[in-house]
Specification:
By secondary structure, the chain is α/β, with parallel strands linked by helices. Helix content is 27%, strand content 24%. The chain has 2 domains: 80 residues, HAD superfamily/HAD-like (Rossmann fold); 69 residues, no CATH class. A 4-stranded mixed β-sheet has the order 8-7-6-9, with helices on both faces. It is elongated and about 55 Å long.
């Protein structure tokens, strides 16, 4: 059987959706969407093609990369744990509180003396355990603009996911 090149592959009659990884794929080294891509998005919108950024990043981080209200952009965030289509949550996987606390314990147990901190994410907020400016600066960059970036000991609602971030050491704890 002869090897087929992708260049010779049959062209689809209609493309309805294009999904792309973000970090290290679409984004520039400055973590921005390349300017020419916005023209491509406009063309995709004219042709009725949905664009879906897919990433391990939280939704607010992804959403700040694209103009608000763009009708043809949906999101797969948190490694698939949150799927948003045209501003509506289609699918969400919550991690139960005992599992979150178990993971927090494992992270702390495995990293004594290391420069780490935790961010517990929820679709509309994040909880951080450290209050030092270096950590908060990194957390805000990672999380994007949230309705609230709260400091606190335990979330009042079920957390969404857990991320480990290393910056300055601190004694503040969750």
């Amino acid at each position: 059987m002869a090897e087929r090149s992708w260049r010779n592959a049959p062209r689809p009659k209609h493309i309805a959706l294009v999904a792309s990884d973000m970090d290290g794929t679409l984004l520039t080294e400055a973590d921005t969407v390349p300017e020419p891509f916005h023209r491509i998005l406009d063309t995709m919108q004219q042709r009725g093609i949905e664009f879906v950024p897919a990433s391990g990043n939280p939704y607010p981080t992804l959403a700040r990369l694209f103009p608000p209200g763009r009708p043809n952009v949906s999101y797969i965030a948190e490694n698939g744990a949150l799927i948003i289509h045209r501003g509506q949550v289609l699918s969400r996987f919550d991690v139960d509180a005992p599992s979150v606390h178990h993971v927090i314990g494992l992270v702390r147990q495995s990293s004594p003396g290391n420069d780490v901190g935790l961010i517990i994410c929820h679709p509309d907020t994040a909880y951080v355990e450290r209050r030092d400016s270096a950590f908060l600066t990194g957390a805000c960059r990672f999380m994007g603009k949230q309705k609230g970036l709260r400091l606190g000991s335990s979330p009042s609602h079920r957390p969404f996911s857990v991320r480990q971030v290393g910056l300055e050491p601190t004694t503040d704890g969750l």
